[in-house]
Amino acid sequence: MGMKTTNLVSKYHIFFFVILIFLIAFPFVADSRTLTILFTQIFIFAILAMSYDLLLGYTGIVSFGHAMFFGIGAYATAILLNTFEPTIGVFIGSMIVGILLSAIVSFFVGLLTLRLKSHFFAMLTLAISGLLLVVAEKWRTVTKGNDGFTFRAPDIFKDRIVFYFCVLACLVIVFLLLRRFVASPLGKVLIAVRENEQRTRSLGFKTLHYKVISSVVAGVVASLAGSLYAVSLRFVNTSVMTMDITLDALLMTIIGGVGTLVGPIVGSVVIEFAQHYLSGLAREFPIFERWIIFFGIIYILAVVFFPKGIVGSIQMQISKWKSKKEVRKTFALPEDKERAS
Amino acid sequence: MEPIIRTKNLSIQFGGHKAVDRVNFEMPEKHFKSIIGPNGAGKTTFFNLLSGELKPTEGDVFFRGHSLAKKSSVDRTRMGLGRSFQITNVFPSLTVLENVRLAVQSKEKVRFQFLKHYLHYKKITAEAIAILDQVLLSNKQDAVASQLSHGEKRKLEIAMLLALDTEVLLLDEPTAGMSLEEVPAILEVIRQIKARGDKTILLIEHKMDMILDLSDSIMVLFNGKLLADGTPTEIMNNETVQNAYLGGLYDGELVETS
């Protein structure tokens, strides 16, 4: 058994390694500015979607207010870069400020609301993120309201390829850290909370603590994505706090595969590419100006036919195929043996 | 000697129905007590009150003399009150081994560690496997819990309780719904725990032969009230119990199996 597992793990490793090499080589091989920018966008949303997966897929928390942490990160970076010299130091500082703010907000929001049953929690997160959105709209002296403002990014990020690599590095690091996090003893308890909260309590785990930890980590990672997003646009307005961002993260996570971490990355590739090309089609077919309609359809189809998402469905197929092989091996029929030999 | 567990006027009322009605009982350490009573007598509700899943409307539970009124089910488990559930209550999409490992993890106080991969905690895995061996489930350790047969799920339930290694074990019908050939294995596990002599065990069961074989004492619940509490012989010869069970009030398994 041990042998087989290590074998399988290394297969996954090779797979990820190949993809990573491709992504590293991509900006040099393909001389497409649009695609480089699109990929950067995908990486940012993949980070956001992974943070959402930690909540939804691993802890079983449905939040409709996840955009607030994305927004906190985006505004922290935008405001600080606008106020001070746009140096790399200020940028890193602004990321840390965003992360700290998100950690504090998610801690208190979690502590106050996670005692509630899931749907009440979902409603409250919606309300709180709505509240923050109103703050962002009305606090015009700082946020310039709905219109938002442009700012200068650190010079080094003017080179799109450098920024591409920075975001890719963030994605890889966040992915590896989150993967370790969910495979740690603490992560196992998060999964137990998702599976059966009452039972987890009766095993002697204070589930509220775990849910708060999960929401803080998810908030922090979302804030990081927000900081990167703001720099990628060199512009921020209230749209970073809206429900659309949360829905994007939700859609990417569900289509990619809940509770897999790889799924949200795949999901963000699918959604961002679809968004890009569908809205591109709008010139010829006006219906595609409403590409969001197609997303609705994709979403419904995915939930009905692939509730486990792309990655989840593939994993299921592989494990089915493997267990079939096991059964064959254990109860080999004479004709199977003949066929094998 | 201070009883390890004691209840005082323990009651719970659902609407107009008193599911548990002023039950006073106590139990010395390392004692084996069974709870019998017809279906709906309040046995599982009584367990839920002991383990903190339900809050009493009146009365209190004492553990080593300390009131548990303000203690949650988490606190009670950590203090040493572990329970198994009658309706199988496991983590469905985790493997058998992962289910048990979570319980061992709790016992070992590995709660918030997040830096190392869980497989690095070799002691926890080894302990979990040893417990699965005890309940004859190690051949299924990689199976997903939801795919186990009913009997296997019951075994897993007991394995998780054993893994917690609490001083008091509350066993809620560990053999309920098991096929006949599966029962002896569970019985053997319980007998072994008893033989080791370091646990206080409270068992809800219907199988009288099993109860008479294992119990130091038996308490009878009837309509939420404590009808009798005594040694197996006392209970079998108790007139009230006989009337309650044999006097047409009850025609259940007690008659058939004893």
UniProtKB/TrEMBL annotation, chain B:
InterPro entries: AAA+_ATPase (IPR003593), ABC_AA/LPS_Transport (IPR051120), ABC_transporter-like_ATP-bd (IPR003439), ABC_transporter-like_CS (IPR017871), BCA_ABC_TP_C (IPR032823), P-loop_NTPase (IPR027417). It holds the Pfam family BCA_ABC_TP_C. One of its GO terms (molecular function) is ATP hydrolysis activity. Residues 5-248 form the ABC transporter domain. Keywords: ATP-binding, Nucleotide-binding, Transport. This is ABC transporter ATP-binding protein. It comes from the Bacteria. It comes from Ureibacillus yapensis. GO terms for cellular component: plasma membrane.
